[in-house]
Every structure is written in C-alpha cells, then in structure tokens.
Amino acid sequence: MKGWILLALIGGVLYYLYTETDTLDEPVAEVQAIYQQAENKLDGMTGTQLQRIDHKVDLLKTDIADRLSATEQQALNVITQSQAKLDDFKQHYCGNGADKHSNFSKENQTYICDKLN
C-alpha cells in the first residue's frame, strides 16, 4: 500500500511540474528533438515515408452501393472527390440538428455520416 501512495505522490509532483512550471519544458524538448532526429535518420536510410491511407470512403462506397439510387450515387461520388468536399459535407449535414441533403434520403444521410465519423 505504501508503494502505491508513493507512486501517486511522485506522479502528482511530476504532473504539477509539467503543467504548472517551466522546469520540465527543456528536458521534454530535448527528448522530442532526439526522437525527431531518429525518425529523420530512419526515413533517410529507408528512403520511404509513412503515409496514412484512409479507407473509410472506399468501404462506405462498397457498403452502401446497393442502398443508393442513381442520383444518390452521383451525389456521393461528387462529395467524395476531395477531402475538402468531404469535410464540408460532414460539417453541414452530419451531427445533431444538421440540415437534410437534397439528394439523400434521411436514412442514407444518417448512414453515410455514421460511417464517415
């Protein structure tokens, strides 16, 4: 039991030092710089860079293809052409109190929003 109390006190002191003072800013910056240097060296040695691939849109298109009418499929293709259009769709038509899209039924719009989030 004493060990847990001691561990909690050490954690509390570190949290305080990290959030309320500048004491740990320099060591944290040094560690981050070392990590960044190592990552850059690794990228330079392999000649590759990590790329995040988002398959949500592709999965959505295959999942919902049989549910959509031709007009709805065309609207979905237009929306998924770029990330900016997709973000705009999410902002305007997804969430509580969102507008209804003129080309999608309410059920399909809800399904699309659920799959994109």
Can you offer a commentary on this structure?
The chain is mainly α and 117 residues long. 70% of the residues lie in helices and 0% in strands. It has helices spanning 2-20, 25-46, 56-64, 70-79, 83-93, 106-116. It is elongated, with a radius of gyration of 24 Å. The mean pLDDT is 83.
What labels would you give this structure?
single chain; 117 residues; mainly alpha; 6 helices
* Count of helix runs: 6
Order of helices and strands: HHHHHH
Uncertain runs are: none
Give me the secondary-structure category: mainly alpha
Global Rg = 24 Å
Instruction: Count every beta strand, where a strand is a DSSP E run of 2 or more residues.
Output: 0
Strand-residue fraction?
under 5%
Q: Helical percent range? A: over 70%
Q: Give the integer mean of the pLDDT values.
A: 83
Main pleated-sheet profile: none
Head-to-tail CA distance between termini:
43 Å
Shape by Cα distribution: elongated
Query: What's the oligomerization state?
Result: single chain
Short account of what is shown:
The protein is mostly helical and 117 residues long.
Explain the layout of strands and helices:
Layout: H1 2-20, H2 25-46, H3 56-64, H4 70-79, H5 83-93, H6 106-116
Helix pairs in contact: 3-6
